[in-house]
């Protein structure tokens, strides 16, 4: 039986408990695991810079520090020049590993004495201070060591063992700072805090070392699953030659309030580029001409206060892009909330629900696509509370509103209100950090939903998978659009990239 080790993500507690059980099942001692972890780190170092090179290994008190002590011995045997800065080891394995380093003549600098001068001439810094399971703010001497590594180690290559010191391995939040690693060699399994939130600023390249016990460990159900390209290629097959526009759904986008026609245009274009058969825009009368002029394929309707006729012909509804928070917008929100179909709630539609919640009718499907500030409004908390634990916030939104939800940001998360696990998107680009990107995403979601709903029931996929596909398409389109520069990439630049990505069979045929 084979495992895709990088597709499953676990919490700190799951790894801590599971590694012991898996090691026992594989008849591997914890000391052997430590040896294998150190060997994995040495392999990463050798791939970066062969010996001889100058290494500074910074060790903490527990088994993460123990990995560092063992690595010091292995690296010296491999021809590297090694310096160790450490606190007093406390775990049994760390004590034994530290003694083995001293027994072979290795010198140790007290971590409290670490200073700028110790980084002179160093090629590689290894952070083995605090690994999996940190859930409180750093204190001295670790916070001082982290700041020194980030300040004076910037000209070195920095490797973190398991998790960058200071990064919460369950939330991806720095406590309050963390080592800015160029590479993180993480053990046994990927952790939630390595793939979402601020993690992208600290982890660098992530290397997974399963330490030879994966077959036993991966019997544990994962907390997150990684969204991968095969989800798109499996479900966006070549279209039948006899197909027509009615086969691919009718997306109704409700938005485009006064002065915000652009948001509706972006959502509409994205829906068209992702394959919706028809796309209508219900907008304020002052925006109708601008939207109609921007994209002739859009069917643009000025609405005062009645969506009845448009809702009757819609396959799915996207409400929010450029909607605003006026009385006109609220009337439309209330109408859509009663519609017996699948609704994507975004932007000001979410803000409207946050201000004055509406009950979701039974058996209706709602999908939310908030960014952290919108999520905070829905949960009536501060944005910092959402970013402090993105997965927890997402789960609470799903429960509170009985809705599927996609929480935007680095490491976009997707969850169903009916499943325990969630999805995470590990793709994306800072190029998406610009107004209008979310409008594009809502259009992508609407198009995929319309096409999914238009399929025979037996061929439809779960709605959380539709959201996962949309997150991946949007993220990768952002990456591709930014190839000539992240700054200045516009949401409208994603349209051609989306068109290519939703035709994976043609990409393969052309060799792209």
Automatic annotation (TrEMBL):
In the N-terminal section; belongs to the NnrE/AIBP family. Keywords: ATP-binding, Isomerase, Lyase, Metal-binding, Multifunctional enzyme, NAD, NADP, Nucleotide-binding, Potassium. Its cofactor is Mg(2+); K(+). Coiled coil: none annotated. Homotetramer. Bifunctional enzyme that catalyzes the epimerization of the S- and R-forms of NAD(P)HX and the dehydration of the S-form of NAD(P)HX at the expense of ADP, which is converted to AMP. This allows the repair of both epimers of NAD(P)HX, a damaged form of NAD(P)H that is a result of enzymatic or heat-dependent hydration. Catalyzes the dehydration of the S-form of NAD(P)HX at the expense of ADP, which is converted to AMP. Together with NAD(P)HX epimerase, which catalyzes the epimerization of the S- and R-forms, the enzyme allows the repair of both epimers of NAD(P)HX, a damaged form of NAD(P)H that is a result of enzymatic or heat-dependent hydration. Pfam families: Carb_kinase, YjeF_N. It catalyses: (6S)-NADHX + ADP = AMP + phosphate + NADH + H(+); (6R)-NADPHX = (6S)-NADPHX; (6R)-NADHX = (6S)-NADHX; (6S)-NADPHX + ADP = AMP + phosphate + NADPH + H(+). GO terms for biological process: metabolite repair; nicotinamide nucleotide metabolic process. AMP binds at residues 408-412, 438. Binds 1 potassium ion per subunit. GO terms for molecular function: ADP-dependent NAD(P)H-hydrate dehydratase activity; ATP binding; metal ion binding; NAD(P)HX epimerase activity. It comes from the Bacteria. Residues 228-505 form the YjeF C-terminal domain. (6S)-NADPHX binds at residues 63-67, 131-137, 162, 263, 322, 371, 439. InterPro entries: Carbohydrate_kinase_pred_CS (IPR017953), CARKD (IPR000631), Nnr (IPR030677), Ribokinase-like (IPR029056), YjeF_N_dom (IPR004443), YjeF_N_dom_sf (IPR036652). Its EC number is 4.2.1.136, 5.1.99.6. This is Bifunctional NAD(P)H-hydrate repair enzyme. K(+) binds at residues 64, 127, 165. Residues 15-219 form the YjeF N-terminal domain. NCBIfam families: yjeF_cterm (TIGR00196), yjeF_nterm (TIGR00197).
